[in-house]
Design goal:
Mean pLDDT: 94
Helix content: 25-40%
CATH architecture: Alpha-Beta Barrel
Radius of gyration: 21 Å
Number of helices: 14
Distance between the termini: 17 Å
Number of strands: 16
Strand content: 15-25%
Strand order of the largest sheet: 1-2-5-10-13-14-15-16
Pfam families: DUF4985, GHL10
Shape: globular
Number of domains: 1
Order of helices and strands: HEHEEEHEEHHEEEHEHEEHEHEHHEHEHH
Keywords: Signal
Protein name: Alpha amylase family protein
Structural class: alpha/beta
Oligomer: single chain
Low-confidence stretches: 1-20
CATH class: Alpha Beta
CATH superfamily: Glycosidases
Amino acid sequence: MRKVVCLLFSCLLGGMSAVNAQHARKHILWFDATANFQRFSVKDSIIYYLDKSKDAGITDVVVDLKPISGEVLYPSRIAPVMNEWAGVKKDGSFDMMTVFIAEAHQRGMKVHASTNVFVAGHNHMDRGVVYSDPAKAKWQTLSYLPEGMTPITQQKNKYSAMLNPARKDVQQYELSILKELVKMYPQMDGIILDRVRYDGITADFSDESRKLFEKYNKAKVKNWPADIFSYGTGEKPARVEGPLYKKWLEWRTKVIHDFVYEAKAALKKINPQLSYGDYTGSWYPTYYEVGVNWASKTYDPAKDYPWATDKYQQYAYAEALDLFTTGNYYYEVTKAEAAAINNQSIEKRGEAGQGKGKEDFYTVEGSAELVNKLVKGKAPVYAGLYVDQYKGHPEQFVKALKMCRAHSDGAMIFDIVHVINMGWWDELKRGLNE
């Protein structure tokens, strides 16, 4: 029976490989900046873990060079440099990214830089650009909560101090960092943008956003913010949509769409061979809450979702990408397991815009299928896993990896720190090779 199951799964992998033959098969491993700060402040440690990654079947590594604090891990002249984290000081005798690129290339692996774009502060540590630079403190997003307008640095239940993506000064600052990074490392294979989005549905309600929206809508908002939405009464007041709610969603999505295309043009001008990538969540039915339409422009969400306007389709951006990796962050792997989703699984969904339902797309298989359906082959898709969700369940992790390979162009694993801490190198190798 086991041989039959393995044969069927091999056929499934082979079939998907044939379908996605136009896209390169990749197994991508993420190296988070702060979680691995001490580990990758040592050159020998970088080499050791690249060897481990290569042996497991990893083809591409993603080095996080701009974590949520807005500081960077390379010698920038624009952004503050992170030379210390959690009491650990970085060894300044070598450049981490230069070592990553040289050593990975020697092993036949590709290297991408990751940058957290529209965020510049760590709320749990009161650290980062919006905390240390008074001139940039005004860039933080202003949230419309039931208790009123609240700057995100005052929302200590959230660790990311997100910025207002609509502000032109924010966009130009973040773009200048991206351009500097690409110029500094011409041998780098790619860049993957992260947090190119709004904080959530409650953001951003600053005066700047109101003015920009009014310009887009070509009319003043008479009742602010009630014409966008308001709150009902009760212990957990629900949002009540206003007459401009859908238009507001449309405009926010245009903001993100335009930045994605502007950044691509600027970075490709510097390095035409650069792989231009993006990371988002896979939960498209609720991802409008963060102002992102990662689908293909050939897909019309207005036919399927009540929150989409007729113009929402225009602000899709899959066609802009050379690489698209998604968070298929669910413990349940197969669609058949959706019926078994319990409150414990739902409580683990802490990502922005992630819903609480039990539909098929709240599984690894279902979410991967949905992403491919909406991207329509316009960009290679790499289904991603959050390793920590499988803690104590190594076989479920292996099963999830195989599912990512079966239903996308490979797999993305976040993060190496969890593989190290749980000692799951054999499980990683099995999931990527069996």
